[in-house]
Amino acid sequence: MSKPKPTLETTFCGIKCLNPFWLASAPPTNCGEQVMRAFDAGWGGAVWKTIGEPITNVSSRYSSIDWEGRRMMGFNNIELISDRPIDVNLQEIAEVKRRYPKHVVIASLMVESKRETWHDIVQRSEDAGADGLELNFGCPHGMSERGMGSAVGQVPEYCEQITSWVKEKARTPVIVKLTPNISDIRMPARAAKRAGADALSAINTINSITGIDLNTLQPNPNVDGKSSHGGYCGPAVKPIALSMAQQIQSDPAAILPLSGIGGIATWRDAAEFILLGCSTVQVCTAVMHYGYRIVEDMQDGLLAWMSEKGYATIDDFRGLSLPNVREWKHLNLNYKIVARIHEDLCIGCQLCYTACWDGAHQCIHLDRTAPAPDTTLTPAMVEAEAARRISTTPIPKLDSNGAGHTNAITPLERIPRVDEDHCVGCNLCSLVCPVDNCITMERIDNGLPPQTWEERTAAGLVPTGASEVLTNG
Amino acid sequence: MSDRQAFPPQVHEHPEIAARFGDIHPPFEAQAAITESNRCLFCFDAPCTTACPTHINVPRFIKKIASDNLSGSARTILDANILGASCARACPVEVLCEGACVMHRYNKQPIQIARLQRFAMDGFHQSGAPLPFEPGEDTGLSVALIGAGPASLACAAELRRRGIRALIYDARPLPGGLNTYGVAEYKLPFAESVREIKMLSQLDVEFHMDTTIDAAKLAELEREHDAIFLGIGLGAIHKLGIGNEQLPGVTNALDLIAGYKSGELTTVPERVVVVGAGNTAIDAAIASVRLGAAEVHIVYRRGPEQMSAFSFEYEHAKSEGVKFLWHVLPTGIHGDKAVKALQLMKLATTEDGSIIPQPGSEFLLPADWVVLAIGQGTHSAFLTANGSDSARVQLERGRILIDRATGQTSHPKFFAGGDCTNGGREVVDAVADGKRAGIGIAAWLEGLHVQA
Lengths: 473, 452
Hints:
- The structure holds two protein chains of two kinds.
- Chain A is 32% helix and 16% strand.
- By secondary structure, chain A is of the alpha/beta class.
- Chain A has two domains: 10-324, Aldolase class I (TIM Barrel, Alpha-Beta Barrel); 330-443, 2-Layer Sandwich (Alpha-Beta Plaits).
- Chain A is globular and about 85 Å long.
- The relative contact order of chain A is 0.10.
- Chain B is an alpha/beta fold.
- In chain B, the strands form four sheets. In chain B, strands 3-2-1-4-16 form a five-stranded parallel sheet, with helices on both faces. In chain B, strands 5-13-6-7-8 form a five-stranded parallel sheet. In chain B, strands 9, 10, 11 and 12 form a four-stranded antiparallel sheet that branches.
- The radius of gyration of chain B is 23 Å and the shape is globular.
- Chains A and B meet through helix 12 and helix 13 of A and helix 2, helix 3 and helix 18 of B.
């Protein structure tokens, strides 16, 4: 049986989408000219740079975290909403929709918290032809000081109030964009749902200071020697965004169609958000880094993966990983794995050794050439022994066994050994190992049936004090 | 005996030599250095550190480059190897740290340790910072070091850090031995070597240059000082023992290299033949090409698999246009007032590896210069001569026998290191020997004084 040819076409809260890849409300969607170029590059939708009463920005506005030579692993901004007049933005939305009727244009909105003001902007946006509205309750800097953005998103009651005003007027779907700068993102999500929101998008950026210049003692981004809390995004925030997407999608009181945002740069990132229940994804930082062209591989890669897995549509795999995220108390305590080092792949860096000794449970040893297993040799003893060794530059004619001649094969004494009886299966060694598949975590059959903490507690196998700690903690 | 010099006079670069002997490995630009340093895995008990004779903590200095702690990086290097700047340029890292890098077994490109080390040391020099060490509190002890090469310099640094006076004696006008006079200029420029050594004067190392030590003078130093360190290197290059070797145009590799490095030699004639196939022969042959020779041959009595040069040096020589003649034996030098040709006899090899001359196979290789590079003799005469009461030190095939861990010779008051003990290896080996000996001397003297 031939597999169906997969399609990226999908529907999000009633809005038909050519593909699930949208540009998030941000500098890449500042104006019509940009959005049209983005659509030409392959983006399925764009959430317009937030429209509201024009603001004045500062310079500079961005800063970033570089990590071991890679640029922009984390990115932050203190830019506000659109600095262009509302009319100009709306005219351009109309123009884009006229030229690209099949592409999705969402108007992101942020105005003062007055019913009439919201009614007015909703009306004008829909008149311009927007396919939907995204309420920006997430912006964490500047606007929040004026009672907008995350100042709304952080208070479920405000969130509910404004959403309900919008719903009174709106004819197109209403998407509420949530802030992660809150202890439980389900609270504003529930509030939005109560108010009748059609969908959610999450996450907006995270409060951050990216760093301090050690020469000037000034934080980044630098505005005349001063800085302000900026919104953090980019690859660094993806795990936080995934966790929040899962929380929303696993909560019956909050669940709504979700557009996932946060550190998405590749088709793999997108697939992960969809597996946790998102219907579309929104991208900003990766486009600011590399341009609109990145969407080509996002489409190409996702289609290839769907084809390989036999998924015909986005909905075929949407949310499939949700059942696999459980509370800790539902995890199997009798599942046992141990680390195994594959000697043929080991390059002898011994990072697993030092990680296990200093960061884990001291069960990796350097005793393969010792007459008997020796678990008492500490890292300091190994280093002291190495310091005593006398080495000489090998001369080809005289020293055929010099250092340079054996570098293709890892000497046995440099390959660490796992004490499987003491290994707790924490994964650390396999995470630090620089070689793929060199350290694998292998399941050990301990003959025990699966048992969770909850089951163990229910069976009375846990002392009372211990179970209370978990309950209260 | 010359008076103690604060430090020898300034050295000036010779523009013509500098132009012809540009850097073989260009220095890193800052961002490239950081990218490369981040590629280092930070191995535990790192093989690069073990492979380095001076045991520089390579991952540590590399990670300090990554964290933008350049002064700490340089301190890490200097703590293990006081000549870390020149070793970064002169070391055959392919068979040392970089040869041992685990990347060979992973993504195949080893970390460029030498270039990173040079980056850290260049940064240190450019900063103008003083050596990060100070002389130890004066112990009243003193040591005479014979020879101002890398072994003695490293030994002196250890002694000074322990408050022991270090007086270095050398026959040449400038210190550094082969580091200054014998390393190919495209690896380590003359002026760089001298600049590095100049830092040692911050530790109050006392240099007595232009001072030849003979057996009598050695006996005098032995009486005046608490210990003697012999860092005397090797002697003159061997002669072939064939006719006409006294003709003008017959020279040796060390004189050729020292000559151009110090600026006294700026050209060589058209046709140069280098006899021998070690690393020094390669250096002399490449230098001849760079100094304008049209045709440079290396002649060797065995085949390429038996030559003592590193394979990367062999490849380098070929890439510079040096031609190799294998299995030939020089049997005569032709010429009246100057060399005209080298007479060579072909050799046959047998399965057991021996070589058999083929009489009647002689031929002439035209040459304006014949450069000998067939190994160096030793200074054993200087140590064994003289009927003084000192038993001097035990030798083996001309090499001074030492305890590898402490540098001590058969005569407890005499320590030694470098080429005179190992038969001729690398700068880094001499530094390692000198360092162990410096620590060894201090420990031995302390033991003596504790007992006393």
